[in-house]
């Protein structure tokens, strides 16, 4: 049985944050998986393929390329390519760090610094699906960098803006935990309890890039989840 029995596994028009002939950006709900895994739950890429095929009456199905991922308990903007040309170019842009991603995270413990850069070397254990951060390079590790800034304090919680420079598995989660500030709900990385909804307070807030075909600036925002908790932070600056 799925860990998310109450989740609706259907993409509709209201989930689309941006779309043209080459790209489509979707509002990913916490709990949706981007690609098929061993849970057997329907994946977001399959949901989006179905959405495109039905919307544009494509009886043979639709092409869709996955260009990046978000962890299952994370919400926010995620981008897909609708053409092979766009997929190749977007993949190159991610590799060359030409995609500017901004995340928002909520923590309970005040960070030791209010802003700065974090640099660690990360090692992922695929069997346990957990990443460990080291202060120095170790065998099998990947360098991870991000910039962060505390945006404010509200009702006992701190809102942090994170701009990852690299894109490593669980990077933001484990690096914030090293500050002594695990993300709310993320008991995998030190928060004392998990969320009843099995989500964590990490949200892919914004994606900025130059369109790979049109050569125009694209700036996509994802609104915060309307869950009675995240909503209160919507008044903070974008």
Coarse structural class:
alpha+beta
CATH topology: Pseudouridine synthase
Helix proportion range: 10-25%
- Basic shape: globular
Specify the CATH architecture: 2-Layer Sandwich
Instruction: Give the full name of the CATH homologous superfamily.
Output: Pseudouridine synthase
**What does the average pLDDT come to?**
93
What's the end-to-end separation, in Å?
38 Å
- Counted by DSSP, the helix tally is 3
Biggest sheet: strands, sense, closure?
Answer: 11 strands, mixed
- The count of domains is 1
The CATH class designation is: Alpha Beta
**What string, H for helix and E for strand, traces the elements in order?**
EEHEEHEEEEEHEE
Description of the molecule:
- This is RNA pseudouridine synthase.
- GO terms for molecular function: catalytic activity, acting on RNA; pseudouridine synthase activity; RNA binding.
- Belongs to the pseudouridine synthase RluA family.
- By secondary structure, the chain is an alpha+beta fold.
- It has a single domain, classed as Pseudouridine synthase, CATH 3.30.2350.
- Helix content is 13%, strand content 33%.
- The chain has three helices and eleven strands, in the order ββαββαβββββαββ.
- Strands 1, 2, 3, 4, 5, 6, 7, 8, 9, 10 and 11 form an eleven-stranded mixed beta sheet that branches.
- β8 and β9 form a beta hairpin.
């Amino acid at each position: 049985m799925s860990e998310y029995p109450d989740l609706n596994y259907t993409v509709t028009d209201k989930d689309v944050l941006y779309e043209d002939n080459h790209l489509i950006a979707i509002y990913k709900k916490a709990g949706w998986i981007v690609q098929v895994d061993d849970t057997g739950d329907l994946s977001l890429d399959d949901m989006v393929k179905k959405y495109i095929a039905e919307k544009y009456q494509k009886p043979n199905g639709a092409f869709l390329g996955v260009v990046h991922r978000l962890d299952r308990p994370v919400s926010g903007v995620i981008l897909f390519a609708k053409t092979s040309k766009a997929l190749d170019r977007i993949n190159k842009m991610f590799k060359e760090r030409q995609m500017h991603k901004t995340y928002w995270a909520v923590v309970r413990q005040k960070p030791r610094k209010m802003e700065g850069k974090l640099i660690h070397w990360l090692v992922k254990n695929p069997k346990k699906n957990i990443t460990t951060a080291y202060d120095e390079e170790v065998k099998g590790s990947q360098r991870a960098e991000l910039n962060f800034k505390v945006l404010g304090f509200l009702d006992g919680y701190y809102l942090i803006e994170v701009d990852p420079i690299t894109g490593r598995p669980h990077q933001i989660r484990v690096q914030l935990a090293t500050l002594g500030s695990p993300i709310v709900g993320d008991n995998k990385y030190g928060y004392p309890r998990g969320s009843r909804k099995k989500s964590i307070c990490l949200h892919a807030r914004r994606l900025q890039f130059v369109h790979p075909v049109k050569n125009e600036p694209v700036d996509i925002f994802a609104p915060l989840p309307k869950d009675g908790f995240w909503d209160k932070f919507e008044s903070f600056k974008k």
